[in-house]
Amino acid sequence: MNRYLPVARQHFLAALASTSVVVKSLCATVLTLYFLSFGVNTAFGLGVTPGYLFPPNFWVWTLATHGVVERHFWDATLSLVTVVVAGRHLEPLWGALELLIFFTVVNISVGVLGAFSYLLTYVATFNLAYLFMVRIHGVLGFLGGVLVALKQTTGDSIVLKVPQIRMKVVPMLLLLVLAVLRIATLIECNRLASYGFGVLSSWVYLRFYQRHSRGRGDMSDHFAFATFFPEILQPVVGLVASLVHRVLVKVRICRKTVKRYDVGAPSSITISLPGTDPQDAERRRQLALKALNERLKRVEDQSWPSMEEEDEEDGGSSSNVDSPLLPEKSQNSRDNSSSRGQESSLITFHDAPSQL
């Protein structure tokens, strides 16, 4: 720990220094509220309490503040790392304003959906503890949103080599880990609910509502809801998701998938979907070319012999075999050239009187 903590601290400060004012402000807010929690119960006043969010209390400000409220050191550290990672990987693609909008949308959605789920639980059980003893706060909701956004942008990148884990499976893998921890009663239920609603709300926003240079949302196949699940479950999940999407389209919550055809393109016909970012496509092409070049380089290093050894062998054989014959060949070539010159001069001399 004494070796790696200073290095990790240095990398974290360097990454934080390269981010915008939005990321720095969020980190400062997390630290301020964490130190304030030693003297004040910040989770009660700034976290979402289902019984106080709904009428007649209307503590609506907690929807905007619960995502930066932490009471433990490890939770505050996770919040800072999540915000810095979002600023490092998502802010260059979206911009500072869009990152702030994404943070706000995910946190408000997590607060509303979490409070509504506990309200339904109270209706089913009539237990007032679900309304007034539950505190929804922390970074797990935004962490789920950041992982979904990273799946959208860098889904094919490798997060862990042994065993090989790609970024596209990390959101559901972490959800499974949190579910196991909840079953083992190692974490509270509100943490699992916050992360799950963060994954769901961020996917809905990025899929249908986020504004891009070419439209709204991302209707590409690699970002469909079924891709969050294992391949054996994807057909069933895809069927259910398509039915839910049709219902949402009829009630005008979501829009239909619109395809645009560019007939005037230099190639045959190109199909572009609204919400696809050309920068993402270019980045994926660069990653694929880099992987292909590395693979070809490894194959060439294994299959092709060394050229230096061949040059040494060829040089030695030519010096031993051809060196005695070089003077004779050069003398014959000089004799032949001189004879050709004399014949040409004679022919020219004999032809000159006829021309005169």
UniProtKB/TrEMBL annotation:
It comes from Microcaecilia unicolor. The chain crosses the membrane at residues 12-38, 99-122, 128-149, 169-187, 193-209. It is found in: Membrane. InterPro entries: TMEM115/Pdh1/Rbl19 (IPR013861). This is Transmembrane protein 115. Its main location: membrane. One of its GO terms (biological process) is retrograde vesicle-mediated transport, Golgi to endoplasmic reticulum. It is a multi-pass membrane protein. Keywords: Membrane, Transmembrane, Transmembrane helix. Residues 300-356 are annotated as: Disordered. It holds the Pfam family DUF1751. Residues 329-347 have a biased composition (Polar residues). One of its GO terms (cellular component) is membrane.
